[in-house]
Write a structure and sequence with these properties.
It is built from 17 helices and 24 strands. The strands form seven sheets. Strands 12, 13, 14, 15, 16, 17, 18 and 19 form an eight-stranded antiparallel beta sheet that branches. A four-stranded antiparallel beta sheet has the order 9-10-11-20, with no helix packed on it. A three-stranded mixed beta sheet has the order 4-6-5.
């Protein structure tokens, strides 16, 4: 189970007279320019801390303290030479196979294991961390929040409600919406420039940033131009970023030959890292979800969109007017059911039953919400010492069309005993030193991976199967258990 993020809805300005002057005129620490700003540094930190904690809780973190310390060490060295070294900087590697990196305001930076598996050396990683640090130092999230506030209430007579922007901070605590804020391409280019600045200040070879852009460009080409990694999706085109990076390099007078690249050290740090989705946390075969760690399976309706997250499994029909949600609950099934049906506005009466031999409590319900009446079914099941809550619901006027599908799915929860499922393990990254010169295609035949040779080329920063590998070079491959 993994988790995604609801969008942040910023609020907390109201029409009144005169109070913006304290925060309206501020100097951007990274650029030195004057700008209109409604968010203070303390508010950035408060929002960032909540977002950082929510990210780690919902995604999970890679359980490798040495790798976490390694990435944090690089980040802290770069943050120390930035324009905002006083922030409470923190760095984490999230347990997510998606290629991604993001920063929350106030100094909180996260990268995914999916991104690390596609990096070729420490300098490449530093280029990504430097870019994210640049978003923080240039206060890009604070700028985005300010634009939202101005768009909502206008400039004339606006003032900050006390406590200042409390609504924004509260909204950030409710989810991970800050990480969904889209920066403009000018801001992304500015972060590239700042990342370059921080690489130079920490003696990381800035020429390696080209490799990152080119990797993303090859990923786009391999997917037919319609699939970009999350980190790339809102950024300028890779070829444009490469051109600008090379223009910045033309201004460098320092001897870059002594600057850090550290390929071997970086590869040793990421060897053994899980590659791709971790089936231990649940995987789909057709419409059926298997969960090896929790030893259950569930059948979802045909044609429904599904998402396996860190805290819940979700599914919805194409129209999006109903939802299935499977998550954990507190207490016994009876206690959890009584608590659910005892909520204010919830109507219904739980009954004891069994589902495929499992003790269960549940029933149909209706709930009154600010957006209208919800109706659906819920069942609480005891399995492997835990209580699962499995609910299907939607707007009362629409959910009747899905009633049988919802109930059938809730009744499909059953234990798994098949060892082929229970023993399923994630693929992992392994290193192989090449004994003699060969092409990647020859390497792939001699040292096969569970991924196609084109993807092996991608994770090694090679052009393709015909690329020549020198004797003694270390190459990444992906193996099953």
């Amino acid at each position: 189970m993994r988790s995604r993020r609801p969008f942040l809805r910023a609020g907390a300005l109201a029409a009144a007279g005169g109070g913006l002057a304290v925060l309206a005129c501020a100097t951007n620490p990274a650029t030195g320019s004057k700008e209109f700003m409604l968010v203070s540094e303390s508010q950035e930190i408060a929002m960032g801390q909540q977002t950082f904690q929510a990210s780690m809780q919902n995604y999970g973190v890679v359980q490798d303290s040495a790798l976490q310390a390694y990435v944090a060490g690089i980040g802290h060295r770069m943050a120390a030479v930035s324009e905002r070294p006083q922030l409470p900087w923190a760095f984490a590697v999230l347990d997510d196979p998606v290629i991604n990196a993001f920063a929350a305001p106030g100094g909180f930076v996260m990268v995914t294991r999916g991104l690390l598996t596609h990096m070729g050396n420490e300098a490449e990683l530093a280029s990504v961390l430097g870019h994210e640090i640049g978003h923080v130092t240039a206060r890009h999230t604070a700028q985005a929040i300010t634009r939202q506030q101005v768009a909502q209430v206008g400039l004339v007579g606006a003032s900050i409600v006390k406590p200042e922007l409390a609504g924004v901070i509260q909204a950030a605590g409710q989810g991970l919406g800050l990480l969904f804020m889209k920066f403009g391409r000018d801001q992304e280019s500015q972060s590239d420039m700042l990342g370059f600045r921080y690489m130079m200040r920490t003696n990381y070879d800035p020429r390696e940033a080209d490799n990152v852009f080119e990797t993303f460009s090859r990923m786009e080409a391999m997917s037919g131009g319609d699939r970009l990694p999350d980190w790339q999706s809102t950024h300028p085109a890779p070829e444009d970023r490469v051109a600008k990076a090379r223009a910045r390099l033309d201004t460098v007078t320092a001897d870059l030959s002594s600057f850090t690249v550290n390929r071997d050290g970086f590869l040793r740090r990421i060897e053994g890292l899980e590659f791709g989705p971790n089936p231990r946390q649940g995987y789909f075969e057709g419409n059926r979800l298997y969960h090896p760690e929790m030893a259950f399976q569930v059948d979802f309706p045909d044609g429904w969109k599904r998402q396996n997250t860190a805290v819940a499994v979700l599914a919805a029909p194409p129209k999006g007017d109903a939802i299935l949600q499977l998550t954990l609950a507190k207490g016994t099934p009876e206690e959890a059911a009584r608590a659910f049906f005892g909520q204010e506005g919830v109507q219904g009466e739980p009954r004891r039953s069994t589902v495929n031999g499992l003790q269960a409590y549940g029933g149909d319900f209706q709930a009154q919400t600010q957006d209208g009446t919800l109706s659906g079914s819920v069942v609480f099941l005891a399995h492997k010492g835990q209580t699962f809550r499995f609910a299907g619901f939607g707007a009362a006027q629409a959910v009747s069309a899905y009633a049988e599908q919802l109930r059938a799915t809730l009744r499909s929860f059953r234990p798994v005993t098949d060892r082929a499922v229970l023993d399923k393990q994630p693929n992992r990254l392994r290193l192989q030193k090449v004994p003699s010169q060969m092409t990647l295609q020859e390497f792939h035949r001699r040292y096969p991976s569970v991924i196609p040779v084109e993807q092996v080329a991608l994770i090694n920063g090679l052009d393709g199967p015909a690329s020549v590998i020198s004797a003694g070079e270390t190459v990444k491959r992906v193996v099953s258990r």
